[in-house]
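Students often ask why we bother predicting the structure of a whole assembly rather than each chain alone. The short answer is interfaces. A chain on its own may look different once its partners are present, and contacts between molecules only exist in the joint model. In this exercise we take two input lines together and write out one structure for the complete complex. Read the inputs first and try to guess which parts will touch.
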Amino acid sequence: MEQMMTSNIETIPGFTITKSLGVVSGSTVRAKHIGKDILAGLKNIIGGELKAYTELLTEARTEALGRMIMDASQRGANAVVNVRFATSSVAGGAAELFAYGTGVIIVEG
Amino acid sequence: MLLNYSHTAPASLLSKGDSLNSDEIGELFGLSFVILSATLFIVFPFFAFIYSMLFARLHQSKAIKSLLAREANIMHQLGGDNLHTLSKPIPDRKINESGLVIANITVAPSWWQLFLGGIRSIFGGNIVSFDKVLAYGRSEVMQRLREQAIGEGWDEVLNVRVETSMVMNKIKGGKQNKMGTLEFLAYGTGIR
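Now the answer. The structure tokens for the assembled complex follow.
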């Protein structure tokens, strides 16, 4: 299967949407293991960027996006338009990352 | 046999006073460990606070300086910004390909800044110390999006959104722990 096309605008430029397949979504909840959590806590003393968390969230978001794309391909979509992200802090030190969009079928032209 | 026993017993009692047996050594070690860890718990935050007061500004201004340099460099290279919040491409622009571009950063204020912010929030008004951290985080994430877009070969990025959320905060009994970790996320559609 070819790579799923994604965009956060209402169309995929250069293509025409022929059918909308509804909302597709993917989410993941992640927490850092305690060692890195403590190190990040130490880094917190001087502030600035916390690289461990940045990496964790990048990883998690990629996974959420991957799940969304899998959902879209299961419905038979070949593109996802208007992708949005939402982040929320759930129980102790964990974060939920959520990606959603509209699965569509597109044709060239 | 009885005699023999009564002779040895006082001797063993006497020797106990001179050198420590294994039980007492263990007790002493345990006690010193408790005292040491207690002092560490009291002293460490104090020194950490002092350290934060002295070096946080230095550390953060270094990051801000490098950010400004990278920003100026990219602006000079492209002759303008490659991020746009337009939701549609300019009508006569030819687009061959498009794709999602994402960049993020996690920042936190230092202990000293948290302390200053805490004091400031009693009187209200502009909290300068948090302002700095947030401004840095937001500009940095925009800069990362620019670099990411250039790295992936996109000419321009449309419909850029910047989101802020609090993450990784430990919630204790319904009250948030004041760690203040913020995540900035910027994303858009790259075109070429």
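Check your guess against this: The first strand of chain B starts at residue 98 and ends at 108.
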